[in-house]
Write a structure and sequence with these properties.
CATH architecture of the largest domain: Alpha-Beta Complex
CATH class of the largest domain: Alpha Beta
Largest sheet: 5 strands, parallel
Shape: globular
Distance between the termini: 35 Å
Number of strands: 10
Order of helices and strands: EHEEHEEHHHHHHHEEHEHEEH
Structural class: alpha/beta
Number of domains: 2
Number of helices: 12
Length: about 325
């Protein structure tokens, strides 16, 4: 019997898996990627009797690969908070799914483990910008404000590490970052002992400062539209970042339609460009993104962290 752990390389995916392996240590094959790499199940060579644990990747984007695994006799445990669509009915599929938009995968695993490693669930929730869920998790732990702030920053730094076009764009690959995290049962010990955590935090702050130093092409009540021609800043900056194919994004994604439409109309947005939208805390409810074929959009939330990430819309082809 072989074990495969398939997980999103962001804070939520890493912290979800970390909780499970603290509870049940296994010698498993890790399958992951950067934040945008979510169609991961097709690369898993599991067969009859093998166990596959899937964390924080959309079932909707991996449905056919999931069915293939089940047909080959694999046992699949699936935890996720993204839109799932039709869930295959199979005795070897054990799924805990919730796409209500108010929780994350780390919180689902915390529920499954009945709070055994709740502090790591809080890190994942903070990193995925589910602050309300994170605070609900940490409240029974009776941590002071300073320690809660450390957990929030750790989550943001782990999440920041997952953004880039390729692994060459990031400071540490998701598999390596998970392995570093996996050595620590206590997140405060990780913060204290691992220089990488401080480096990620410093790089993240530097990227945010560079983004704020740029002049907005268009400003509205919903946010400031920026064209960022430095790819690394575009990919990594901010508390919550997502890359989307405009033509296929589902509605209700939390982006500002006014900004996008005006930028396109004025000729500022082109196929080879990327746009960043830096949100304002006074406009949590944004309009629907118009379906405009071909461009790549990067949406960044800094002031209002929850607006984009809570809705958690997946790129769709």
């Amino acid at each position: 019997m072989r074990y495969f752990d398939v997980f999103n390389g962001d804070a939520d995916g890493i912290c979800a898996l970390h909780q499970l392996r603290l509870a049940d240590p296994l010698d498993s094959t890790l399958v992951t990627g950067l934040k945008r790499d979510i169609a991961l199940l097709a690369s898993v060579p599991a067969g009859d009797g093998d166990v596959v644990t899937v964390l924080d990747i959309s079932l909707d984007r991996n449905r056919e690969a999931l069915r293939a695994l089940l047909d080959r006799g694999a046992i699949v445990h699936y935890f996720d908070h993204h839109f799932a669509g039709e869930v295959p009915k199979h005795p070897s599929l054990h799924a805990l799914l919730d796409h209500s938009g108010v929780t994350c995968t780390s919180a689902l695993v915390n529920r499954y483990l009945r709070g055994r490693f709740a502090i790591w669930a809080a890190v994942g929730a903070f990193g995925d910008a589910f602050d309300e869920a994170a605070m609900e998790i940490v409240r029974p732990l009776r941590l002071d404000e300073g320690r809660v702030a450390l957990l929030r920053e750790l989550g943001a730094s782990l999440n920041y590490s997952a953004y880039g076009q390729t692994e060459a764009d990031v400071l540490v690959r998701p598999t390596e970052l998970y392995r570093i995290v996996s050595h620590y049962a206590d997140p405060f010990e990780l913060i204290e002992r691992e220089p990488l955590v401080d480096r990620l935090a410093r790089d993240r702050i530097a990227d945010i400062e560079r983004a704020f130093s740029m002049v907005a092409i268009h400003a509205s009540a919903g946010g400031d539209g920026l064209i960022l021609r430095q790819r690394l800043i575009t990919d990594r900056v901010g508390e919550g970042v997502g890359q989307f194919d405009i033509a296929g994004v589902a509605e209700g994604n939390g982006l500002d339609q006014e900004i996008v439409a005006l930028l396109l109309e004025a000729g500022h947005l082109r196929i080879q460009d990327q746009i960043s939208i830096i949100g304002r805390p006074d406009k949590p409810d944004r309009g629907k993104l118009p379906k405009i074929g071909g461009e790549l959009l990067v949406a960044i939330q800094i002031g209002m962290r929850v607006a984009l990430k809570t809705l958690d819309i997946e790129p769709r082809g």
